[in-house]
Amino acid sequence: MRFKFNLITLSLLAISGAITGSAMAADFGVNKANTSTVNQQVFQCKRCPQVAGYTGTIGVNAAYIDSDDIHSGNAFGTDNDGADGSVDADLHYRNTAGYKAKFQAHQLGLDNGFAHLEAGKSGHYKLVADYQQLTRYRSGDARSQLWYKDGVLTPSEHTQIQELSLQRNKAGLGLSYGQDFYQAYVRYEHENKTGYQSSSIVTPRPVNFGLPVDANTDNLTAGLSLSGDSWTTNLNYFVSQYKNDVDALSLPYLYDVFAPAPDNQAHQISLSGQYQLNRTVMSGRLASGKMTQDDNLIQMSGNPLQNWDGEVDTLDGKLSVTSLLSNKLRLGGSVDYSKRDNKGSVWEFAQYEVNGISGAFKQNIPLDTERRGFKLNASYRLSSDYRLQAGYDRKEMERSYGDREQTNDDGLWAKLNVRAMDDIKLKFKASLDNRGGSEYQTSELTSSETNPLLRKYYLADRKRTAFEAKFNHTPTSRLSVDMTARYAKDDYNETQLGLTESEDYGYDINLGLQLNAHLSGYAFAGQQWIDAAQAGSQGFSSPDWFDDVEDEFINLGAGFNYSGLLEDRLSLGGDYLFANSTSNTLVTYDVTTPQGDYTSFNHSLKLHANYALSEEMALKLAYQYERYYDTDYAQIDVNTVPGLTTLGSLNHNYNAHQVMLSFSYQLR
C-alpha cells in the first residue's frame, strides 16, 4: 500500500508529541512540518469505525424436529421431538464517553445454548455475566430393574424405561477494574449437574442401573495484575467446592449399598510473572494448593472410621528463559517441578482383597508423586527460506508405593520449516523418545493378584519414534491446499505381558476454494489408524494368548456458499460431513478368534438459504439431516448373560430431521 508524505508526517508527529522531554535534532525535523493544509479526516479508519449507539443483530428461531432417538439432540441442541424455539443475538453498544456493552446469545432456549453479557468503560472496569446450558444425551430407552426415589433403589419385577443424559447449567459473574499499570479481578461460577448415568452394583449378582446425578460446583477466582515497561506479574487465588446432593444409595432390605462421590474442596494460590531484559525474556510461575475431603464413609464391619480425613498438598513451579542471541539464533530452556503430597490419615484395619478377606491388618497407603522436567531448545534461521529448530526434553517421575518407583522420559526432536516459493510452505518434525527408570517389580499392595511379568503401559520401558510433515500451497488467490501426514510407533521392548507395540498414523487434507466473487467452497478428508498388540497369560505364568486391536477413523466433509442472487438479496449454502470409526479385535489362544467389533458412522447434511427482506431484516430457512448408527458387541440385552442384568442394548440406529425458520433484525 502506498501513502502520501503528509500521512507519514502525521504519524511521526503524533509519535514525537507523545514522548515528553524528547527533542528533534534540527529545524527540518518532521515536527516542523507544515500540516495546516492536511485534511486529517481523510486518514480516519474506515474498516473499524467507532459508531456510537446500538449495533448488531438479534434473531428468533422456530424449528421442527422429527426424531425417534434422543441421541440426535447432541446435534440439534435439544431432544424435543416437535416444535421448539430459540434466540440468537450479537448486540453492541458504545457511546462517546468510552462506555460500551456487548450481549451475545446462541440457541438460547434450547438444551444446549449460552448467553454472554459484558459492560464497562474502556481502560477502567468491565462487568461480565455468563449463562450456559450443556446437555449430553446417551439413551432414551435404557431398561432398568432398579428404580431410584428418595435415596432408595427399588427393585421392579418388570424393566422400566429410563433416560440416560446429563445436563449442566453454568452461571458466572465477573468484575475487573484497573488503570495504567494495575488490574484487579474477581469471578464467581456455579454449576449444577443433574441427570442419570449408567452404573452397577452387586446385590448379590451384578445389576446395571441408572445412577442419579445431582451435584453442585462453586468456583471463585480473584487476582491482581501489575505491569511495567518491561515486566508483568499476576497474583491469583482460586477456590473450588464440590457438593453431591445424592447420598449413599440403599435397597429396601439393605442400607448403603452404593457410595456416592464425596464432597470436597480445593484451594490454590499462584504467583506468575515475566521480565524482559534487552533480547532475553524470563517468565516464571509458582503455585501452592490444597485439596481436602472429609465426607462420611459407609460403615462396614471391621472399619473403625466414621469419615475420611483426606488431604493432598500440591506444589507447582516453572521457570522459562528465551534469548535472541543474534538475528539468526534463539536459545531457550525451562525447568518445572510438581509435587503431590498425600497427607491423609493412615489407619490399620482389616481390608478386602481380591480373593476375599485375609484377616490380616494393613494400613491404607497415601500415594505421593513428584515430577521434575527440563527442556532445552534452539532455533536457527539458515536463510530467509529455511529455519531449523531442535530440542531436548526430560521428565523425571517418582511415585511412592507403586509398581515402579521412578521413571525417566527423554526426548529429542527437530523441526525444519521451508518456504520453497512464495506460495509453498513445508514443515517437518521428527522425534525420538525413550522411557526407562528404576527396577520394575510388582507392588506389594497387589503382589498376590498381579503376575510379576505384567507391565503397565504407562510405567513400562518404551521407545517411541514419530514423524510429521505439513504442506501448504496457495497456487492462486482462489485456491489453498493444506496437507498433513504423521506416523508414530511405540515399542515396549521389555514387556512380556501387557501392551507390547502400537502404531498410530494418518493424514489430513484441506482445500479452500474461492471460484468467483459470489461462490466459495471447501473440502476436507482425514484418516487415522491405531494398531496395538498385547500379550496375556491365562495360566498366571508366561504369555499364552495374544490379541491385536485395529482402530480406524475417517472424516470427510465439503461445503459451499453462493451469494449475490436476486439482486444480492439471496445466498445459499450447504455443509456435508461423514464420520466413521471401527474397532476390530482378534484374540489368539490356540486358534485366532475374532471378538465382537465396534462400528459407528454418521452422515450430517445442512442446507440453508438467507434472504434479505431489507437492509435491516432477513429470513433464513435451514434444513439439517442426521443419519447415525453404532453397534458395540459389549452392549447386550437385559438378561442375555445368566446372572447379569444390564440396561439393555444402548446402540443407536436412526434418521433425524430438523427444519428451522429464523428472522433476524440488524441494528444500525
TrEMBL record:
Q: Name one Pfam family in it.
A: MtrB_PioB
Which GO cellular component term is one of those annotated? cell outer membrane
Q: Which residues form the signal peptide?
A: 1-25
Q: Which UniProt keywords apply?
A: Cell outer membrane, Membrane, Signal
User: SUPFAM superfamilies, alphabetically?
Assistant: Porins
The answer to whether the entry has keyword DNA-binding is no
* InterPro entries linked: Beta-barrel_TonB_sf (IPR036942), Decahaem-assoc_OM_MtrB/PioB (IPR020016)
Q: Does the keyword field hold GTP-binding?
A: no
Q: Where in the cell is it found?
A: Cell outer membrane
Q: What is this protein identified as? A: Outer membrane protein
Q: Which organism is it from?
A: Shewanella frigidimarina (strain NCIMB 400)
